[in-house]
Amino acid sequence: MSVIEVAAPVYQPAQGARPAANEEAMCKAWVLDKAQAESFFRLSRPLREGERHDFDWLPCSIKGCLRAQGRDWAFEINAAGTSAWFGGEETRSFGCSQAQCEPLVILMPDPAGG
Fold it and tell me: CB neighbours of 7 closer than 8 A, spacing ≥ 6?
């Protein structure tokens, strides 16, 4: 697996939610390079149906492109430790709750929750 492109973080509050200056500043300061994004994916595990609820969600994400298993995927990493790969009609969800992911995200999952 190799990350081809990583974009700057995007702060996007949930629809109807008011933007929070502290969240927006935290989001803009969160940056991953290609090697860090690859580390995040290597440390992550596939999430089965319903397991995403073990993780929080933040209105901050980083998008990009990667190549894995002989094909290109678009990806989105949420600052709370989840990610999704998008390839055609297929979507794969991942989450990272390992301690090594802490420097790669803003918010780690609650150990009691997952």
Answer: 62, 63, 64
